[in-house]
Amino acid sequence: MTAGFDIQKIMALLPHRYPFILVDRILEVTPNERVVGLKNVTINEPFFQGHFPGTPVMPGVLIIEAMAQTGGVLAYASLAEQQRNELMYFMGIDQARFRQPVVPGDQLIMELTLLKSRRNVSKMLGKATVDGKLVAEAQIMAMTGGTE
Questions:
Q1: Which of 20, 55, 66, 124 makes a 20 to 30 Å CA pair with 45?
Q2: CATH number at 2-144
Q3: What are the structural domain ranges in the chain?
Q4: In which band, very low, low, confident or very high, does the pLDDT at 91 lie, cut at 50, 70 and 90?
């Protein structure tokens, strides 16, 4: 297991930037196994202006994106050093479920476990929790290096 790292290290791995980087910290990562990431959900997020005025709720698609970005860190950490400069692409999502709303002030904890990895494709099981309660889950697939 590798100790976690901050936003600077995350941005060194992922191409995402504000306002679309949705992981604030990696709490732990074990290459080829699992990663745990954290997203502090704050009212100043741009999507809260329209989702929904008076009742701000983090869109489910952005919860999935936050899990995918966290999974991207796991996938990059699991690659050989010479492959880490390749872009990673979101390939697919299966069995997505949303259990309860995520609102400003929540701390979203995302845990992704590697289910399968073959060549340049990884499949992960993602679970997102707030205060220990499951708020979302999905199987996520990612690919490095583009199409062949």
A1: 124
A2: 3.10.129.10
A3: 2-144
A4: very high
Could you list the active site residues? Answer: 51
CB-CB contact of 70 with 7 (8 Å): no
Q: With CA atoms as reference, report the closest residue to 85 among 76, 94, 72.
A: 76
- Give this prediction's pTM: 0.94
**Numbers of helices and strands, H then E, in the chain:** 2, 7
Among 70-79, 91-100, 104-113, the least confident range = 70-79
| Residue 109: its H or E element | strand 107-118
Distance CA 2, CA 51 (A): 36
Sign of CA dihedral 39, 41, 47, 50: positive
